[in-house]
Design goal:
By secondary structure, the protein is of the alpha+beta class. The protein is built from 5 helices and 7 strands, in the order βαααβββαβαββ. Strands 1-2-3-4-5-7-6 form a 7-stranded mixed β-sheet, with helices on both faces. A hairpin with a 2-residue loop joins strand 6 and strand 7. The longest helix has 14 residues. The protein starts with a strand and ends in a 5-residue tail after the last strand.
């Protein structure tokens, strides 16, 4: 049976569980270099404080719970300057939660929130080309591959291709 997936507001008590999940090289490997590794509880506290700050571009970041247990984070942020109508979604999950449909369920819940945001006219997601599982999650949620940007992402001193997806709506 598929786990019950819910989104909840981030709060300081989640710092330790977030750090525990994110301080896994296999999880961190598919994230932007802006995320430190090793990932500490202090890093998580700082992130939660940033999300909670009034006017933060990360204010639409949520904890993902699967059967009540923290599984990861999902969120969207609006672009800057003349692209303020573009929402970029992102997510990550602890390895123990991979392959169980949690990412697809959580992203679907997030997209319900995105649909009600009057500022959003376009939704996109960008992933490392080597992250086939994340690409499949996006496709299941109604995203289509729009472009492959050659050597656009850097990770551990190497360049990787980035795949850009655009949301065309929830599949019927």
């Amino acid at each position: 049976m598929a786990p019950k997936v819910e989104l909840s507001v981030l709060h300081p008590q989640l710092a330790a569980p977030i750090a525990a999940l994110l301080n896994d090289y296999r999880v961190w490997r598919s994230l932007s270099d802006i995320v430190p590794y090793p990932y500490t509880e202090k890093d998580a506290q700082d992130f939660i404080a940033c999300v909670s700050r009034e006017g933060s571009p990360l204010r639409n970041t949520f904890a993902v719970r699967a059967d009540g247990q923290l599984a990861g984070l999902v969120g969207y942020q609006l672009g800057a300057l003349n692209k303020s109508h573009i929402a970029t979604v992102g997510y990550w999950y602890g390895q123990a939660f991979w392959g169980r449909g949690i990412a697809t369920a959580a992203l679907s819940l997030l997209l319900e929130k995105v649909e009600t945001d009057p500022q959003v006219c376009r939704v996109e997601a960008c992933v490392f080309a080597f992250n086939a599982a994340s690409q499949r999650v996006l496709e299941k949620c109604g995203f289509v591959r729009e472009a492959v940007l050659k050597e656009a992402l850097s990770k551990e001193g190497k360049l990787y291709d980035e795949v850009v997806f655009r949301w065309v709506g929830t599949p019927r």
